[in-house]
Amino acid sequence: MHTGRLEAFSDGVIAIIITIMVLELRMPETANFSSLLPLYPKFLSYILSFIYVGIYWNNHHHLFQTIEKVNGKILWANLGLLFCLSLIPLTTAWMGENHFAGNPAALYGFSLMLCATVWTVLVQIAIKHEGENSKIGQALRNKTKEYISIAIYLMGIIVSFYLPIISIIGYTVVALIWLVPDTRIEKQLK
Amino acid sequence: MHTGRLEAFSDGVIAIIITIMVLELRMPETANFSSLLPLYPKFLSYILSFIYVGIYWNNHHHLFQTIEKVNGKILWANLGLLFCLSLIPLTTAWMGENHFAGNPAALYGFSLMLCATVWTVLVQIAIKHEGENSKIGQALRNKTKEYISIAIYLMGIIVSFYLPIISIIGYTVVALIWLVPDTRIEKQLK
Amino acid sequence: MHTGRLEAFSDGVIAIIITIMVLELRMPETANFSSLLPLYPKFLSYILSFIYVGIYWNNHHHLFQTIEKVNGKILWANLGLLFCLSLIPLTTAWMGENHFAGNPAALYGFSLMLCATVWTVLVQIAIKHEGENSKIGQALRNKTKEYISIAIYLMGIIVSFYLPIISIIGYTVVALIWLVPDTRIEKQLK
Amino acid sequence: MHTGRLEAFSDGVIAIIITIMVLELRMPETANFSSLLPLYPKFLSYILSFIYVGIYWNNHHHLFQTIEKVNGKILWANLGLLFCLSLIPLTTAWMGENHFAGNPAALYGFSLMLCATVWTVLVQIAIKHEGENSKIGQALRNKTKEYISIAIYLMGIIVSFYLPIISIIGYTVVALIWLVPDTRIEKQLK
Prior knowledge:
- 4 copies of one chain form a homotetramer.
- By secondary structure, chain A is mainly alpha-helical.
- In chain A, 75% of the residues lie in helices and 0% in strands.
- Chains in contact: A-B, A-D, B-C, C-D.
């Protein structure tokens, strides 16, 4: 089975996820700028989640460029990833509405950790399918970046019960680490 | 007429259906975990429906891989399937909001049975169009799996008025039966 | 400029239009079937509009299959069509909420007439661009079906102030006329 | 990396942005035409924003037709553009709800200026990537149209605090300037 339609479907789902978050940012009824101020935690949460979903799209794009055929396991791991990503608008909304309070910041970190874990599983299944010596097997053999990210999420979740602002900084740092599309794959493709 | 655009349009509609269900999971306004607890029936319903729509996407993908050209009948049978799938977010919401009560569980089963029936009709039209000896005619000649599923849905609907939890288990069993993408088509393609 | 991306973008917009109508069908909070009854005018409106948007997608698909390159005029006529189609969820919701009352039935007919008019303009621009002797010029020279439809819409709008049920029947008849994908184009393609 | 999936993803996001604005136009509960009247500022705002998003889609389409491969910078500049475009439904809703009052008209102009600025940056990055002598480098060397637009937005923002109606006229004039898809690229492609 070719990857074309899997990519198209994933593009559609990720496009919807990244855009419906904006529906949470309901504008105030009064027409002065000061009434926009209370929106700032929601807006900051939206920016962070937009970047995260953008990163997943970038990496998804890179990953499936190296894969030519998919099997049932990859299909379901991919659907699992889309499911986890679909929870990000929810945890983002909860965190934004509650001004980065402890519990919502922990749940937000948990949803990010869930995505990162399922992503690592998807990559692992893809490597197994393509073979250790394939392009992707060579490119993604080293998973230090994945493990560091998951470790920071875990610390973020624990810390959020005491100092949620530190957790948010942690989540932002992970986003910055991943901002650059996966150079491991780009190198391998060359 | 080629199948390319039919697949792209169906991908779009199915991507929206699978994602808008998450909009039903409105987060509570308070910031403690205990306020998330009442969401669990909605969340479980969401997971089950996500898997169901995912299964339909998988099978749709497999089906149209064997079909090269489409006619008016296939176009409309496909639109009929998309219509039935678009009802799943509604019946899911009703079931989740009412904690798997009898009537909503029956309607949920009915919407699943509707999808399964229209799917079987679509497959039948596709076989007629491609010919009994075509790849798809050979692969999908045996419809035992389809008939068993529809029978379980029917029993689920009846049982839901007495023991809705049994119906939900029945619907989940059908989902598990279909989790594996259609190996009949994969075998035939080889 | 090739038609590929215009088709993909139109597919996306039409897929969203056809699916967001279902968001209007908000399920009742109580769990018995009788509470679903008041939804029937909304549900019937949804079915009719789903068929209409499905017809436009079918015909759009057929039209752009005969066109190879697009210019600025076709791009904007197509965006104009998408704009008119995007009004159908609104007029459908108004008609459904008000149980096919006079004014909403008239506005619904008006939105259908608007779509049909812009569609005819789009076809005319496409014929001009491709030439009278092109496939599409030959196939769509005869516009009787378009003119009859617009005439029925016009009558429907007028009648709706006295007997809205007759208007709805008229709109349904036009849908039935168009249910079969455009055989004029299929003949010409052969 | 090829542009195919970047185009498909952008098409999806832009299709959603252009369509969710219609969700803001909630129909009144009463069934007479006079109750539709208060919707006119929202409706006019919707038309203007629909045209703007349509223009961005047209230009996006033209731009990526001249680009063959993308790098990480282009990916993120493109995501930045999609982010800015996703704010248009919000500023449109605020402006429509407040009948083109001063502050909302200023914020609307600001969101348009943001999009125009990020668009110019994206074009600049694309030129740098493809080379000054490439098709796109030649076609988009002259940025007078971009600078005039940004200047009008800036004036519109300032004027909106005194005479918001003049700002709206200014924004409409910029839309008209850009209505014709980018002939600079079309000339160069020939």
